[in-house]
Design brief:
Helix content of chain A: over 70%
Number of helices of chain A: 3
Largest sheet of chain A: none
Oligomer: homotetramer
Shape of chain A: elongated
Radius of gyration of chain A: 19 Å
Chain lengths: ~110, ~110, ~110, ~110
């Protein structure tokens, strides 16, 4: 009788503040793998592996992080920025400025 | 005799297809400076200047280019993407995808 | 009963193949912090924190990784490459080529 | 009788202070091309080409500059740093520090 269906979502419900939920599992998996890569590099230093091999793993980890960042930025543009654009005005301007600053930090 | 005033705009008229005209002179000046930096580096190689000093100039030039790229991207988001967002649909989606791909190339 | 003390060195003994031991603890601490940052970003995605804030943390993590990479490269040049340079010949050439390739991957 | 031949070299002679002469023409050609790319981007802004197309050209120019930088760094390691390493002492240390700082600026 009691319908609990509307509460039967482990995450990504209507309360979700930033709604990039469609890809959430993808990002969680990627971050899980990135954590593993960071632990692997720690272990390589611990075991005093060859420096160049550690650098190769750091490059791989950096690339993985950049891919996450670009993906999040895409989602952000697609949702937050597009929503703000439809409303227009100062809010839209502020969202774009914020996105550009994030891009500038990534590009450096 | 004939009034040529309506043709007397060197740039940035209503026919301008991509309308980032407000900042056009800023970008032209920056690109002018960047061309000068590139010529300067060529000259440094020609004169066999100290390698590390050439690398410093290359880093400066790369930073200047990144600043132009981030500025253009900001303008692009502010105009093309926002306009597309207001129209919505496939056009908006395509514009965001295109912008993200440009960001990915800059971030690498 | 038997004294195993000579094997009771957790790291950095004379058998250490790549001898960047002076800074080993510094690198281990940095990598520990980087692992923490990666876990923090995972948690931010889990909690659906604001996208731009996640991007800020990704930029910080990338910078921390780059600092580790540049530090390792410095150590590598200072030890492996300098040693090879003293021996000279094909070995020195190969070490430089290897170092340059690692730098190219970092610079991209 | 008078032999001026030994002075008749426009560049790359024994007086050359930084002796990366074997590849000098390669670098001059690359920098020439880079100057052309910079002029092309200036022209694209002048003509108000599509923003994303300009960004693509900026990415290409940045990659070309990075390739020059990595090449110069390789030459620098192969000559200046190796020479300093053979002499050893404070000079060698200083050369490595200088090279690492240049790498850090490129990696950022």
């Amino acid at each position: 009788m009691t319908d609990t269906a509307t509460h039967d979502h482990s995450h990504g419900d209507a309360d979700s503040p930033h709604g990039y939920i469609t890809d959430k599992d993808k990002y969680l998996n990627r971050m899980k793998r990135i954590e593993g890569q960071a632990r692997g590099i720690h272990k390589m230093v611990e075991d005093e592996k060859y420096c160049i091999d550690i650098l190769t793993q750091i490059s791989a980890l950096t690339s993985a992080l950049e891919a996450v960042a670009v993906g999040l930025l895409d989602d952000h543009l697609r949702h937050c920025v597009v929503d703000a654009a439809r409303l227009g005005g100062a809010e839209a301007e502020a969202k774009i400025t914020e996105a550009t600053q994030a891009i500038a930090r990534l590009v450096r």
